[in-house]
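To illustrate the input format used throughout this study, we show a single complete record. The first block contains the structure-token representation of the backbone; no residue identities are included at this stage. The design step must infer an amino acid for every position from geometry alone.
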């Protein structure tokens, strides 16, 4: 028996369907549902699907590490919290820098300065207070800068761990994305153990290609065994493209995280 629950990102699966039907398909497969930007979506229709929403994007504009953008990020986070309440979604996701539609940072940087670190920590503290009042959790996601998000500040798992530890709020946690971590840092079993007290959610995809487990180099049954050994009882979410169809991708994901692995990784 696993202690964690499984979810999948409707943005990357069942791409031939309208978005509401994608959500319904993930829900009918027995998984919780993740979504990204909510601004162009029919929130009432999403709520009517009966899906359990696990995570959504927690901001639509602004910047975590830029003083000129921090106030705007807080304003967009408040709007996102109102949508999260309508969907019953407990977690709202953040990044070290604002991303464009293609995943590239809107304001790429070569060097993360001490001032950016300080601004990010202070902004996260303010977000933590918003989350506490709303009964929600903001999660800070690590990203890779080698393939998908070059120039994103505060992107490594080591960066997100340091920031969440510095803030020290139960309403600011990690979205530990193991696809990004494998590209940027590797050593996933040790990373999971190091990050465990701070994790709000775990996301997975295989490397290379960002498809479902079993299509690349990561042996996810060992990661699953490590999570069970550590007693992780949160959400593990598939944020991946389907290599050969979405139903098969969900089955491979479920198999990797539901069957007994080879023992602790």
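Output of the design step:
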């Amino acid at each position: 028996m696993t202690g964690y629950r499984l979810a999948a990102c409707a943005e990357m699966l069942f791409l031939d369907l309208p978005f509401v039907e994608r959500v319904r398909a993930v829900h009918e497969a027995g998984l919780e549902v993740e979504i990204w930007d909510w601004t162009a979506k029919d929130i009432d229709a999403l709520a009517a699907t009966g899906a359990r929403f696990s995570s959504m994007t927690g901001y639509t504009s602004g910047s975590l590490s830029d003083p000129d953008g921090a106030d705007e990020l807080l304003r967009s986070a408040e709007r996102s919290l109102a949508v999260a309440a309508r969907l019953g979604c407990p977690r709202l996701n953040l990044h070290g820098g604002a991303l464009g539609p293609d995943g590239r940072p809107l304001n790429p940087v070569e060097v993360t300065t001490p001032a950016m670190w300080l601004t990010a920590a202070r902004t996260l503290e303010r977000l933590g207070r918003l989350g506490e009042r709303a009964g929600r959790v903001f999660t800070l996601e690590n990203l890779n800068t080698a393939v998908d998000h070059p120039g994103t500040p505060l992107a490594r798992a080591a960066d997100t761990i340091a920031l969440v530890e510095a803030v020290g709020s139960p309403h600011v946690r990690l979205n530990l994305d193991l696809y990004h971590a494998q590209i940027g840092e590797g050593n996933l079993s040790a990373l999971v153990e190091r990050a465990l007290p701070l994790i709000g959610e775990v996301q997975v995809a295989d490397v290379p290609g960002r498809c479902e487990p079993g299509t690349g180099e990561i042996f996810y049954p060992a990661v699953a065994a490590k999570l069970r050994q550590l007693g992780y009882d949160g959400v593990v979410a598939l944020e991946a493209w389907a290599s050969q169809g979405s139903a098969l991708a969900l089955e491979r994901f479920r198999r990797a995280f539901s069957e007994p692995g080879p023992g602790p990784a």
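Structural context for interpreting the output: The first strand starts at residue 5 and ends at 9. The beta strands are 5-9, 32-34, 53-57, 91-94, 137-141, 172-177, 199-204, 235-238.
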